[in-house]
Amino acid sequence: MPVAIITGASKGLGRALAEALAERGWDLVLDARTPQPLQEAAEAVLSKYGVQVRALPGDVTDGTHRARLVAAARELGGVDLLVNNASALGTEPLVRLEALPLDGLRRALEVNVVAALGLVQEALPLLRQSPAGAVIDVSSDAAAEAYETWGGYGASKAALDQLSAVLGEEEPGLRVWVVDPGDMGTDLYAAAVPDDDGPRPDPASVVPAFLRLLDRRPASGRYGAPALLEQR
Q1: Per residue in 39-67, pLDDT tens?
Q2: Is 49 designated active site?
Q3: Which of 21, 24, 120, 226 is the most buried (most CB within 10 A)?
């Protein structure tokens, strides 16, 4: 069975993607900072699909934790897919750049960029051994568009986009996809803009876009989920 590592997998997009891959028979290594929601997500996947699941709570900025994630995947057979989905806003709620705490910006960069690269580096030997090795880095439209108060988070995602583009050039044997999932109703968004209580799409609604990448395996690059969903 193919094996995927998914960070930020206790809820939202990460959990929805985990369930979709498990339905296809993937074994999973799941990460999140909070143990109980992560364990609940793992148990739900296990009870529905019967695949092998390893749930490892921890912080992706911790190198020891990242090594444990890859070691768990190795025990399951390797790493065929790495999904860097865990994200940090930098400050909650979001604020204008003039008020952005520099420690918050550092946290966003550490989680969204440095930890993502650290996990890629840890997993690369196994990804290279997979006949279909792939990395999915979850980005944001804030990486490409200027939205008031989204400067720190957007800058970190823009850095992730560039890092991913270079990785795709350096690792031609892999697929490295950056995915902008578009608008979603997530805890991250609620924390970013708590006053915006308008309805937003369920994260599960964009999962088919990720599956389309895995099915069609286009060239490494940046993709928007809405455009992928429109393809026939």
Answers
A1: 999 999 999 999 999 999 999 999 999 99
A2: no
A3: 21
- The tally of domains found in the chain comes to 1
Decide: pTM greater than 0.90.
Answer: yes
- 121-178 pLDDT, tens per residue? 999 999 999 999 999 999 999 999 999 999 999 999 999 999 999 999 999 999 999 9
Listing DSSP states for the chain in one string gives --EEEESS-SSHHHHHHHHHHHHTT-EEEEEES-HHHHHHHHHHHHHHH---EEEEES-TT-HHHHHHHHHHHHHHT--SEEEE-----SSSS---GGG--HHHHHHHHIIIIIHHHHHHHHHHHHHHHSTT-EEEEE--GGGTS--TT-HHHHHHHHHHHHHHHHHHHH-TTSEEEEEE--S---HHHHHH-TT-------GGGGHHHHHHHHHH---SEEEEHHHHHH--
Q: Give me the domain span that covers residue 73.
A: 3-230
Active-site annotation holder among 49, 153, 189, 223: 153
